[in-house]
Design brief:
Length: 456
């Protein structure tokens, strides 16, 4: 099978260039030859090359190899990771050594042996791959480091409510205190839990996540505390539980309000003792994980109703961070909308998509019962469904917007009636603009113009 490599051969002797090309084409997917070194720059503008096989002398009669060194420097400038292999005449070996000092990978002396040429190019190709890998890893690492340096960069918002949340995160992150994050669904509880971990001293260790709402009674102990081989029928080998696996890091227990009473008792014992006993084991094991819990339930109400243990609540809520509903920080909606729009425009390759101000205003008026997750999904849906030019309010499928406006015809103002007819028709056709336009007797363009006018 051919290697997925790109090789460029630069030699003004067409015979040499062609014979190397024919040989290398049997082993590499993309091999190109040029006989004029002045084309090197254009060749690199068109493609990246893993290896360049470069003649040492180009000017007729020249034997000093200065041309080769000049083009080597040019290639290294254009693409530092590309490996360069020189082809040199017998008398130029000193120069070839100089070329290696300047960054060439190796050289071959004319007349070359095919076997030797293939081995040299293959080694140059492997070196290039490793260099590229290192470059990739370095850029990934610097990206991760910048994320660590800016642990809140993905929490969008400038409202007083979100600023106060960020301040609290910063304060608690430095401690090992147990944190309870409360807030409605989709308000960003998991995002905040991750931010606490990232800005804590434990950020080099793991962040593990357990959804207490999804865990069954029977699996609870085995998942969280681990089990010994043979402890029950399916226990084919020893298993480390989440508490132990999160050692040194943070353990995020989501939907903690969903735990049954017996499981609350088990969890309380483990948090109090700071040790777990795996199912089927006799000895307890200590763990050192920072606990972050989250819920959308009112735990203190549940305590009053007798459905959540007060002692467990006291253990987990050393610090409580309450996340505001999106409707209580509406001033953040334009920022969040812009953030999600940009990322979905990129994801769905609709960079030209434009969102008029009146649409953003409409989004700000809506109450977003599903909070930021609902906003995120609504924007993703709108971007997918759009024709790639402009978003309209109708693209967002909002549930309660304008429920009161236009739900009955109380005014006989013609404009009000037209707006009502358009809204009703779009609703009837579940957002399908073509069908609504047909029913209203308008072209799609005319309907869009009216939608813009009435801010629908
Ligand atoms: N302030 C914010 N800035 C940017 N994105 C946010 C913000 N808050 C939440 N999100 C995004 O909204 C989505 C929902 O957030 P998250 O899962 O953290 O909410 P949650 O409160 O844990 O939800 P649930 O209670 O349903 O588990 C995620 O994709 C998250 O990245």
């Amino acid at each position: 099978m051919k290697e997925k490599g790109r090789i460029l051969i630069v030699d003004d002797d067409n015979y040499v260039m062609l014979s190397i090309r024919i040989l290398l084409e049997q082993h590499y997917q993309d091999v190109r030859g040029i006989n004029n070194p002045l084309q090197i720059e254009t060749a690199f503008e068109e493609n990246h090359y893993d290896v360049v096989v470069l003649d040492m002398n180009f000017s007729a009669g020249a034997t000093e190899g200065k041309d080769g060194l000049k083009y080597l420097r040019q290639i290294k400038e254009l693409s530092p990771t590309t490996s360069v292999v020189f082809i040199t005449a017998y008398g130029e070996i000193n120069l070839a050594v100089e070329a290696i000092k300047e960054g060439a990978f190796d050289f071959l002396v004319k007349p070359w042996q095919n076997e030797k040429l293939l081995t040299t190019v293959s080694a140059a190709f492997q070196l290039n791959r490793s260099a590229q890998k290192i470059e990739e890893l370095t850029s990934k690492q610097s990206h991760l480091t910048s994320l660590l340096d800016a642990p809140f960069s993905d929490i969008i918002g400038e409202s007083d409510a979100i600023k106060s949340v960020l301040e609290q995160i910063e304060k608690v992150a430095q401690t090992d205190a147990n944190v309870l994050i409360t807030g409605e669904n989709g308000t960003g509880k998991e995002l905040v839990a991750r931010a606490i971990h990232r800005s804590s001293l434990r950020n080099q260790e793991v962040f593990l996540n357990v959804d207490m709402g999804a865990i069954t009674e029977t699996l609870f102990e085995s998942e969280l505390f681990g089990h010994k081989k043979g402890a029950f029928t399916d226990a084919k080998s020893d298993r480390v539980g989440k508490f132990e696996a999160a050692n040194g890091g943070s353990l995020f227990l989501d939907e903690i309000g969903n735990l049954s009473s017996p499981l609350q008792a088990k969890l309380l014992r483990v948090i109090q003792d700071r040790q777990v006993i795996p199912v089927g084991a006799n000895d307890a094991r200590e763990f050192d994980a920072r606990l972050i819990c989250a819920t959308n339930a009112h735990l203190s109400k549940m305590v009053q109703q007798g459905t959540f243990r007060q002692d467990l609540l006291f253990r987990i809520n050393t610090i409580e961070i309450r996340l505001p509903a999106l409707r209580d920080r509406k001033e953040d909606i334009p920022l969040l909308a812009d953030h999600f729009l940009n990322s979905f425009k990129k994801k769905y390759h609709k960079n030209g998509l434009f969102v008029p101000d009146y649409v953003i205003k409409k989004l700000t008026k809506y109450d977003w019962p599903g909070n930021i997750r609902e906003l995120q999904h609504a924007i993703e849906r709108a971007v997918i469904m759009s024709d790639g030019k402009q978003l309209h309010v109708g693209d967002f499928n909002l549930q309660n917007v304008n429920q009161t406006e236009g739900s009955g015809i109380e005014s006989f103002n013609l404009e009000d009636l037209e707006k009502w007819a358009i809204e009703s028709s779009i609703k009837k056709h579940q957002g399908n603009i073509s069908n609504a336009a047909e029913e209203l007797g308008l072209s799609r363009g005319a309907l869009y113009r009216r939608m813009e006018k009435y801010e629908i």
